[in-house]
């Protein structure tokens, strides 16, 4: 098996292994797949003067012509040097093309395949994991350590230090997609250019979607049994132009997430483990309220809450003029139920 362990990924991708010329990068974090593929392709192409040395193929095209991938990898580069082939898997099956590729010798060639989330033991993933001539590397959402390393590297390269509380605030708003995280950090660095350091105020002003933060305040306060705080956050969100039906829909998604966590807890897990294992990661400022909500509700009661929110959402859409009143009443009822336990 040549499935690379998470702790070995960076070291593995830092060098070109001539014995394993085929590299499969897959997983739910498409940004990380793309980032790692781009870096490896650039490393593989170093030292060649051939402007056409990197061949880019569409997975759906080679699915209809399985022999083409092996032919492209076996073609001698026009100006010498390593032959580099980039493949992005699409909706069609490319296993026959990769099987043909692995069945023939490749001299001084590298093939990088980008794919989405692949099930263990099936298809393309199983093929590359079982081949001694291929590497299979999973790309999952960044852990806190990965995010911390990314923040530290980018701020150091920009020469702008970041305060500890600002770093914690920033990490709570990142995750899920590596390229999106890079984009948010780059935006922050541009915003803070010329400042002596990055503060929490800079992070709140520029990173993420302010409307999502307002939604979090409403949903967390309601589900934690804090009606006064919920009313204040709700009034703020409506004043800023948020539609009540959109707000109710977002609270529904929060309840769905809580429901999944409660199922894990009721199956024997702990509240702390459920919160720490949530993806995307829960912002550190939200964790106390999420913990309180998880202790206030069980899975059956959360199902009742979802039905009530669905009814309120439909009513708010049917009567836009009364939408804010309908939404606030439903959320206050949820807050009251949470307080009663």
From TrEMBL:
Note the NCBIfam families from the entry.
holA (TIGR01128)
Task: Kindly give the InterPro entries that the UniProt entry links to this protein.
Answer: DNA_pol3_clamp-load_cplx_C, DNA_polIII_delta, P-loop_NTPase
This protein's record includes keyword Mitochondrion: no
This chain belongs to which protein, by name? Answer: DNA-directed DNA polymerase
Can you tell me which family this protein belongs to? Answer: Belongs to the DNA polymerase HolA subunit family.
Its domain of life reads Bacteria
The answer, when asked if Hydrolase is one of the entry's keywords, is no
Source organism:
Ancylobacter mangrovi
A biological process (GO) of this protein is: DNA-templated DNA replication
Q: What does the record give under GO molecular function?
A: DNA binding; DNA-directed DNA polymerase activity
Instruction: List, alphabetically, the GO terms of the cellular component aspect.
Output: DNA polymerase III complex
Per UniProt, the keywords (alphabetical) are: DNA replication, DNA-directed DNA polymerase, Nucleotidyltransferase, Transferase
Q: Which SUPFAM superfamilies does UniProt cross-reference here?
A: P-loop containing nucleoside triphosphate hydrolases, post-AAA+ oligomerization domain-like
Q: Which reaction does it catalyse?
A: DNA(n) + a 2'-deoxyribonucleoside 5'-triphosphate = DNA(n+1) + diphosphate
EC number, UniProt record: 2.7.7.7
